[in-house]
Write a structure and sequence with these properties.
The complex is a heterodimer. By secondary structure, chain A is of the alpha+beta class. Chain A contains eight helices and twelve strands. Chain A has helices at 5-11, 15-23, 85-93, 117-131, 140-147, 164-179, 252-255, 277-289; strands spanning 40-43, 46-51, 55-58, 61-63, 67-72, 76-79, 135-136, 207-219, 225-238, 243-246, 266-267, 271-272. In chain A, strands 3, 4, 8, 9, 10 and 11 form a six-stranded mixed sheet that branches. Chain A has a four-stranded antiparallel sheet with strand order 1-6-12-7. In chain A, a hairpin with a 2-residue loop joins strand 3 (55-58) and strand 4 (61-63). By secondary structure, chain B is an alpha+beta fold. Helices cover 15% and strands 33% of the residues of chain B. Classes of the chains: A alpha+beta, B alpha+beta. At the A-B interface, helix 6 and strand 9 of A face strand 20 and strand 21 of B. Chain A: Residues 38-272 form the Sulfatase-modifying factor enzyme-like domain.
């Protein structure tokens, strides 16, 4: 495969389609019956040093992304489990989500798979409506912070070499290594265990959509950003390794990471916004008016 | 559902024809004299090597014609054909898809012992496109489970040729279940371009392409069968639609990518031998070319030069010679890109060496469009 072939394909997104999607009417159910809020884990404030997403180059040569230090001043709540196929099916039954391409049988508590970025957002919107809470996809940095030790750093320049072809071959080798023994069959929730934050199944065989856009960055000689271009038709998917997928892709097998090794499956884990003053007031009002 | 008994009955006419042909061939005096000559030829027993590689051989023949002995065991076995675990009830020569590549020289005799172990369900045989007479040997090699047969044929024409199973009444099913491979008959003085200049290769990459037809259940999932016989009826229905569910190189989606990618170095010359026993294909090396291509595979014809894509007719094997000039990853694909990317017909070659800026250079890396 040519370098970035899959990615290039992914980048040629009709911007119109995205625009249409972003401006369409949010079709939500009329009456919001109460629904139990999903189990979450609170991620305490703290600092994160991690390698930025996107593709970076210095003097026209691809390089590893620089490390960035991020400070999370406020805690946030993130789902303890990935959204289950059964919960996603409720959204489909309500007419607010499109049918997923993944498993339709909800036995064994399988996670929802075969969902695109737009499916994930539709689900977040529906869940927010159902629960009266603010649910959304995490950013890549929120995900990395919550994933903690299960976030994988993807530097591939052990010798600091910047030969583009050597990098290309090295990446191919490391991906081939990573692909060994992979089992893309979705497993019941909890199968991949918990991380130090108590999140289940992080870095299992279901990758999770984030809101972070694909970015291409040229660094200057001092490692500072010289130019950068964002492409929000492609979002970061987080998991065992970082991937970049076009927003409409449901099956990573045919979508492709920049790295070339596609995610086994695409799924959803949402962050709950801490109630703002306004939403707190709205909730009170709802309670008062019954 | 096809029972073993029915399958055996299905070959009754073939077996009768084989007996008849056998007696005819054995009679003429001239043929007997030649057979006596053959008995005096040196015999070499060659162990077959699993694809994508080729057994050791001389590109230019040493000495006179020989009898080259091969032994192939037919193996019926379930094989996983993609990374989703889809299982094909496969029929194979030597347990691989394609069957192993045989390489001899013009004038040599191929003497094959074909073994059909008692543990198999089906009768089998072999039709060599390179051989002359008796349905390519198919009529003389019908072996039921628990039988073996020995066939000798003379390599009179040079080139790459398909061989495949061809049991009466069930030919396509056996072929699209895995039973095909290739023979390469080299000129005694080796390969040449159209002007008589010798051509050599450092290695052979042997690609066998198979179109597969796996039935799906009511949920769209690929079905898995307990036995070959169980799979027959529904597989035949999918086959008759002529749209394969998988088009794979060497038996499996991804069998020649990732950890199994082919490897070469800048400056090395590779001979790609591509066999497709059933359906047309159009190999293309992304980032490279075919320096010398025997599209139909027959070395007596001058090779075409500098091809971008070449055509492999269903039921033939072709050969393409290429010297790698740049390092990196090359994709060797069936350039029906839907078949390459969605159905599986992709192989990768990892090539190490020095990059040549003269041939290609990224003058400006992708970045924002300048505004004045």
């Amino acid at each position: 495969m040519k370098p970035g072939f899959l990615l290039t394909t992914a980048l040629v997104i009709p911007a119109i389609a995205l625009a249409v999607y972003l401006t369409r009417d949010p079709a939500g159910p009329a009456a919001p019956p109460a629904m139990a809020s999903p189990q979450t884990v609170a991620i305490a404030p703290g600092r994160l040093a991690y390698r930025l997403p996107g593709e970076f180059q210095t003097a026209e040569r691809p390089v590893d992304a620089p490390e960035d230090r991020v400070r999370f001043r406020r805690s946030f709540d993130i789902m303890a489990y990935q959204v289950s196929a059964a919960d996603y099916a409720l959204c489909v039954a309500d007419g607010a989500c499109d049918q997923a391409d993944g498993a339709v049988q909800h036995r064994q508590n399988l996670p929802a798979t075969g969902v695109s970025f737009r499916d994930a957002n539709a689900y977040a919107q529906w869940l927010s409506h159902k629960t009266g809470e603010g649910w959304r996809l995490p950013t890549d940095e929120e995900w990395a912070f919550a994933a903690a030790e299960r976030f994988s750093d993807e530097g591939i320049d052990p010798d600091g070499g910047s030969d583009a072809i050597a990098r290309w071959l090295a990446r191919y080798r490391s991906e081939s290594e990573a692909a060994k023994g992979r089992d893309p069959e979705p497993k019941p929730q909890g199968h991949f265990g918990t991380n130090s934050n108590g999140l289940h199944d992080v870095g299992g065989n279901v990758w999770e959509w984030t809101t972070t856009c694909y970015r291409r960055v040229a660094l200057d000689r001092n490692g500072r950003v010289d130019t950068s271009t964002d492409n929000c038709g492609v979002r970061v998917v987080a998991g065992k390794h970082r991937g970049y997928m076009s927003f409409f892709i449901r099956d990573g097998k045919s979508g492709g990471c920049a790295a070339g090794l596609p995610p086994d499956n695409l799924g959803i884990r949402l962050v709950r916004e801490r109630p703002s003053m306004l939403s707190a007031f709205k909730a009170l009002w709802r309670g008062a008016t019954g | 559902m096809l029972t073993r008994r029915e399958a055996l009955l299905g070959t009754a006419t073939g077996a009768a024809a084989a007996a008849l042909l056998g007696s005819v061939i054995a009679t003429p005096a001239l043929a007997q004299a030649k057979v006596a000559d053959i008995a005096g030829l040196p015999r070499v027993s060659v162990d077959l090597v699993a694809p994508p590689f080729a057994h050791p051989h001389d590109q230019i023949a040493k000495g006179g014609p020989k009898v080259i002995e091969y032994r192939m065991t037919i193996k019926e076995l379930p094989m996983v054909i993609d990374d989703e675990g889809t299982t094909l009830q496969a029929m194979t020569y030597e347990g691989s898809m394609p069957g192993p590549l045989m390489i001899v020289h013009e004038g040599d005799y191929v003497e094959l012992t074909l073994v059909n172990p008692e543990t198999n369900e089906m009768p089998h045989n072999i039709d060599f496109h390179a051989a002359t007479g008796a349905l390519g040997g198919g009529a003389l090699t019908h072996v039921n489970p628990g039988e073996q047969a020995v066939l000798r044929w003379k390599a009179t024409r040079t080139g790459t040729f398909v061989y495949h199973c061809a049991p009466t009444g069930m030919i396509p099913w056996h072929v699209v279940s895995g039973m095909s491979g290739a023979v390469m008959v080299l000129p005694r003085d080796g390969l040449k371009d159209g002007a008589g200049k010798p051509l050599k290769y450092d290695r052979i990459f042997y690609i066998g392409e198979h179109d597969l037809y796996v039935p799906r259940d009511e949920n769209g999932k690929y079905k898995k069968y307990e036995s070959l016989g169980d799979s027959y009826d529904e597989t035949l229905k999918v086959m008759r639609g002529l749209i394969p569910t998988h088009v794979v190189f060497n038996g499996k989606v991804g069998s020649l990518t990732g950890d199994n990618a082919l490897k070469a170095k800048v400056g090395e010359t590779v001979l790609f031998v591509h066999a497709q026993a059933n359906r047309d294909s159009r190999p293309h090396l992304i980032g490279g070319h075919g320096d010398h291509v025997w599209e139909e595979g027959k070395f007596v014809n001058a090779p075409a030069k500098d091809l971008e894509t070449w055509f492999i007719r269903g039921g033939s094997a072709g050969a393409a010679l290429y010297t790698f000039l740049q390092p990196g990853i090359y994709a060797y694909v069936n350039h029906n890109l839907i078949e390459a990317a969605e159905l599986g017909a992709t192989a990768h070659v990892m090539v190490e060496g020095e990059w040549d800026d003269d041939l290609m250079k990224q003058v400006q890396a992708p970045g924002p469009i300048p505004t004045n």
